[in-house]
Design brief:
The protein is mostly beta strands. It has one helix spanning about 30-35; strands spanning about 5, 20-25, 45-50, 55-60, 65. β3 (about 45-50) and β4 form a beta hairpin. The longest helix has 7 residues, at about 30-35. It is globular and about 30 Å long. It binds zinc ion. Zinc ion (ZN) binds near residues 50 and 55. Zinc ion binds next to loops. It comes from Brevibacillus nitrificans.
């Protein structure tokens, strides 16, 4: 599946330039959020996993399917 995000018409993998991903969701780790001093602790993030190299891209706003 291909995806687009805010201001990005077509998301591509920064490692291998592939443009197909599997989408999943991950709870943001509150310990990590505290470490970074961010206030979105325990919110859910969207992740896209590159189908070619398995690199994971994280998004706070859910990417849209193309
Ligand atoms: Zn990749």
């Amino acid at each position: 599946m291909k995806y687009s995000a805010l201001g990005v018409s077509s998301i591509t993998c920064p490692c291998c330039q592939n443009d197909t991903f599997d989408k999943d969701y991950r709870q943001l780790n509150s310990r990590g959020a505290t470490f970074f001093g961010l206030d979105w602790a325990n919110k859910e993030a969207s992740i896209l996993i590159c189908k070619r190299c398995s690199y994971i891209l994280w998004f706070m706003d859910e990417p849209a399917k193309k």
